[in-house]
Amino acid sequence: MSNFDPNMNILLLPISFLYQILLKIRHKFFDWNLLKSKQFNLPVICVGNLSLGGTGKTPHTEYLIRLLKEDYRVATLSRGYGRKTRGFLVADENCTSADIGDEPMLYFRKYPSITVAVDEDRVEGVQRLLAMPNPPQVILLDDAMQHRRIQAGLTLLLTEWSKPYCDDFLVPAGTLRDVRSAARRADVIVVSKAPKNLDDEAKNIFKSRLGVSPQQQVFFSSLEHESLQPMNDAAHHFGALPPDSALLFCGIANPNPLISNLRTKINKLKVQTFNDHHRYDEKEVNAILETFEALEGERKIIITTEKDYARLEKTPYLCIFDSAPLFIEPIKVSFNNEELFNSIIRNYVRENTPNG
After folding, report:
1. I want to staple 125 with a disulfide (CB 3.0 to 4.6 A). Which of 80, 119, 285, 308 is the partner?
2. Is the pTM value of this prediction over 0.90?
3. Sign of the CA dihedral 13, 218, 338, 62?
């Protein structure tokens, strides 16, 4: 939605209003039990949002993985957005992002001790996971807040500091894919990409804007950009950073925080952006390399994101970058009240683990 024209909002509002009516009817059907939601007898945590993307679901899901994987058998269950397959799949060494999607591929590459599964039908996916010989003890539902056929035991709703759901509109007039009132179903609201070291007054003002209920916990999280990580031999032999110049290419929902961070480290940064979840072809990869070769300076590098690398990994196009130092910049999240957030997650899992 980075190319969205705000001048079109008024013209598109009638379409958004009709969409709102349909969504509210659907929610009422679930609220009245005319449409059924299924619960499961194990901890199921949903990480979701109300917008089309860019709130940071992936690094927050990773945070939960790191928090729980040492003590429990953890599984992630995603829809597998953009994959070329259908139905239930468990990631293995033969999978590519075309099979399972870029985010599941990222989880599988970084956390080999967990189970990574995809299924557009989350109920079917959980049932298939529980039928495995060594079933998970905790399931993390990645981006499943709108999938009301399954009822998570704990729901985390992410909303971005710079564009909270309370200031947004339904598509196509805005970037919301669900009604604002759906936020009431969240147990925990995480305001992502927030400035660090917010004072209590700023937090309370923001909470009042969101209109949270007394039983909802609100946390503020910030992105932390980690050191560049070399991804090929040319990058390993590049030597100490910083470079003279760099090319960043990425296909993520909101690249602005990444771009801003890199501009503080690299004076000459050229940026090429693509649509979220963009799948690269050979022509595009060659064009990226040509742009890189035209950069000024002898010490120059290419940078991309972990999700973009996951889409390129195991494709025949990744080797095109062999002559160029290719780096990724990992990101992670930190919370303003990490101890309390962790205790909420751990207590929920411990109290809802059968025979736990």
Report:
1. 119
2. yes
3. negative
